[in-house]
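#structure-requests
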Amino acid sequence: MNSDRTIARIAGALFLTGTITGLLPTFFIGSHLDGPDYLTSLSANGNQVMIGALFAFIAAVVSGSIAISLYPVLKKYNEALALASVGFRLIEAVFYIVNIISLLALLLLSQEFVKARVPGDSSFQLLGTLALAIRNWAGYVFGVSAFSLGALMYYVVLYQSQLIPRWLSGWGLIAATLTLAAALLMMFGEKPLSPLMIVLIVPIFLQEIVLAFWLIVKGFNAPAIASLSAKIVVTR
């Protein structure tokens, strides 16, 4: 029981850290990638871009750690889904790393662009467009899709096991489904920060903040853990 309580607190802290660090890069980087002069803007705000990249890296590490932290508890209820959730969230982390590398490549390209002093040089614009496309596809399409699938899997286990209240895990299932829909829409050209995308993605951010505090303060549902322990004793 003490071990499960510790796991719940660790998972809650990771959910909270992942949500916050996942949002911060948008504030540091987002506005500098808008508009046709994004290369000039990136070069002029290199420190902000680096800070945003650092937070994005922390978010990438945390994203894989969340499912790993939940695995020892969730595997007791559904090992296949628990393991699959770890796999998808590790894939998510890999795509986020690709996103960060593309961002740093954009920053280097922007600095060379400014040094060249040739605003109309199409080669810089072409490379910038390519790096930006890789960043968006890796982060907003494939990364978010992997996150959504991983989240759906551990929310199914949480819902079935009643380790957390079903209203909370049910909210998670709906929010993760909306996030997956957002990734699919971005695949077909929807802008990452469009009003529709914000509407679809906000529920998962709010849900995981609530879940984080629930796990830290209340932990897993003790009757659900006790019920599983009783079943194990009976089967023996």
